[in-house]
Amino acid sequence: MKKTIMDLDLEGKKVIIRCDFNVPLKDGRIVDDTRIVESLDTIRYALDRQAKVILMSHLGRVKEAADLQKNSLTPVAIRLSELLRRPIAFINRTRSEKLKETIQNMKNGDIILIENTRFEDLDGKKESSNDEELATYWASLGDVFINDAFGTIHRAHASNVGIASKLPNAIGFLVEKELSALQKLENPERPYMVILGGSKVSDKIGVIKNLVEKADKLLIGGGMTFTFLKAKGFDIGKSILDSENIDFCKEMLEKYGEKIVLPIDFQAAVDTNESTPSHVVKVGEIPAEELGLDIGPESIQLFESTLENAKIVVWNGPLGMYEIDKYSVGTEQILKYVTDHNIETILGGGDIVAAASKLGYKDKVTHASTGGGATLEYLEGKELPGLAAIEEK
Asked: 5-174 falls under which CATH superfamily?
């Protein structure tokens, strides 16, 4: 059991909180502030205990100088100040004399936000490679470290593993909530079902290998469906194909065929334009010039009947091209089914959470994870470096 923020004495301490403020931006404006909102409980807890709060986060990737302006945390500082209803000192550098002076002059209950940690990646990937000198510098700014960035907990960066190795540490409420939801899968109620969507089998090989043994049923949707169908000898038209992993799909079908549930019909069209006419086709009957873009009505019924007695469902990846309304039907109908039937449902981050948010189901499921890659690696059974660096109780 990892230490949590509640296990540490914070009063008067300089508390570095690694948050996940990696929010989507458009023209410098925040499109979705969910990740900021999710961090508020941990930040408020520290402030209420008269800590001096120092916030850190990355935003996007920084590969060239042009990325510095578009990936600044300035909009995050403004939105965070609005949500907390208090001023926040934003330091637009990752290290500087001004940063040190501002921290030295902090009073209990003050809060500052440091600029995007990945600005340090512009010069030798110091953040992403967990540079020792950078981690030492950042750790010198605080007395205590709290990791509340679940979205990067599968990475060994200077701002999580690096600082944690040098200061008393714990996880925040967001990470605790994520782990609490995912740990239910260690010994799940049965029947335990897994829904996997998304485009490529290669992205989910580890997850498939790990979960197909543990789950009672594995329902496959999205683009990866067609690699499994190709492995069974079906024609898939122009549908997306992960040709390098056909043999892997064959192996899974041979070993676990009774567990794996594949769609039996699709919405198909000649291209992905919303205005292009589409129609329902049976499995194996997709015309050569067309591609499957969503599961069809019979597949929806098949999935619903499979899920009928499920006690818990973990779901990663949408079942169709949900960005286009007419290809979001399969995802929407199955979301409706699991919520209408009060099936405990954990959405495993990334696109399925975005789809659920767009379709109005994100707040209706049991848990929608903030971590895409982190959740996948947890489901694969991998060690998460950012979590491993945190002290045990």
From this structure: Phosphoglycerate kinase, N-terminal domain (3.40.50.1260)
Q: Where in the chain is the domain with CATH 3.40.50.1260?
A: 5-174, 181-379
| Catalytic site residue from 44, 125, 166, 200 | 200
**Mean pLDDT in consecutive groups of 10 residues from the start of the chain, 393 residues:** 97 98 89 91 98 97 86 96 96 95 96 97 94 98 98 96 98 96 90 93 89 95 96 96 95 96 97 95 96 98 97 95 96 98 90 91 93 85 95 95
166 included as an active-site residue: no
Ordered strands of the 52-56 beta sheet: 89-91, 111-114, 52-56, 14-18, 144-147, 169-171
Tokens at 112, concatenated: 């500052």
Q: How much is the pTM?
A: 0.88
Q: Give the containing element (helix H, strand E) for 193.
A: strand 192-196
Could you give the CA distance from residue 112 to residue 203 in angstroms, rounded to a whole number?
Answer: 37
350 an active-site residue? Answer: yes
CATH architecture of 181-379: 3-Layer(aba) Sandwich (3.40)
Task: Indicate if 35 belongs to the active site.
Answer: yes
Distance CA(332)–CA(163), nearest Å, equals 42
284 classed as catalytic? no
142, 198, 222, 350: which one is catalytic?
A: 350
